[in-house]
Amino acid sequence: SQQGEEDPQALSIQEGENATMNCSYKTSINNLQWYRQNSGRGLVHLILIRSNEREKHSGRLRVTLDTSKKSSSLLITASRAADTASYFCATDAGTGNQFYFGTGTSLTVIP
Amino acid sequence: GAVVSQHPSRVICKSGTSVKIECRSLDFQATTMFWYRQFPKQSLMLMATSNEGSKATYEQGVEKDKFLINHASLTLSTLTVTSAHPEDSSFYICSARDRGRIKSPLHFGNGTRLTVT
């Protein structure tokens, strides 16, 4: 399967704490993206990191990429209750056109 | 921002009937759209890649005669679940990429919850 794996599967933290999610994948990539999904809804794009980048920031989000280990991490700082959602990493399939999603991390931020 | 509209958001149908789901890119053109299936608390599984003006490309294990895909224009792709059975009940999500921005992220519809009784 080309699908990536994420850990933890579920994460519960207090508001204000940081949340870290990890993603591992199997094949070489052009880029890796992180998406957020609220329950029963579509996905919202959060951040994209290219294969030649090691770290990227966007607001309270920080993404790292280690292509030698085929892994990425998403850090959400100063979490809020509204950050409660599922988070997925997605990698392209080499053609740059198809994306395969990781297994996802369900984040619960307790107010 | 780029918007993808998916319709209907929920549908209940009886076994043996067919259901059509539409995916529209509202403010951009998409030569390629993607259809995913998602089971409860699980990840998205790519079902097929819909190509405007040509046949869809199906992932291994996905029945092309069961899940008919038509991409007749640069803004519309449809997925028809034919002769639906209860095991087809799932959350179906489409996505699209702006043809003018090859390396842009995918834009997702809000999904369709299909329940087959």
Fold and architecture overview:
The complex is a heterodimer of chains A (111) and B (117). By secondary structure, chain A is mainly β. Chain A is 0% helix and 56% strand. Chain A contains no helices and 11 strands. Chain A has strands at 5-7, 10-14, 19-24, 31-37, 43-50, 55-58, 61-66, 71-76, 85-92, 99-101, 105-110. In chain A, strands 2, 4, 5, 9, 10 and 11 form a 6-stranded mixed sheet that branches. In chain A, a hairpin with a 4-residue loop joins strand 7 (61-66) and strand 8. With 117 residues, chain B is mostly beta strands. Chain B is 0% helix and 50% strand. Chain B is built from no helices and 11 strands. In chain B, the strands form 2 sheets. In chain B, strands 2, 4, 5, 6, 9, 10 and 11 form a 7-stranded mixed sheet that branches. Chain B has a 4-stranded antiparallel sheet with strand order 1-3-8-7, with no helix packed on it. In chain B, strand 7 and strand 8 (76-81) form a beta hairpin. In chain B, 38% of the residues are buried. Chains A and B meet through strand 4, strand 5 and strand 10 of A and strand 4, strand 5, strand 9 and strand 10 of B.
Short description:
The complex is a heterodimer of chains A (111) and B (117). With 111 residues, chain A is mainly β. Chain A contains no helices and 11 strands.
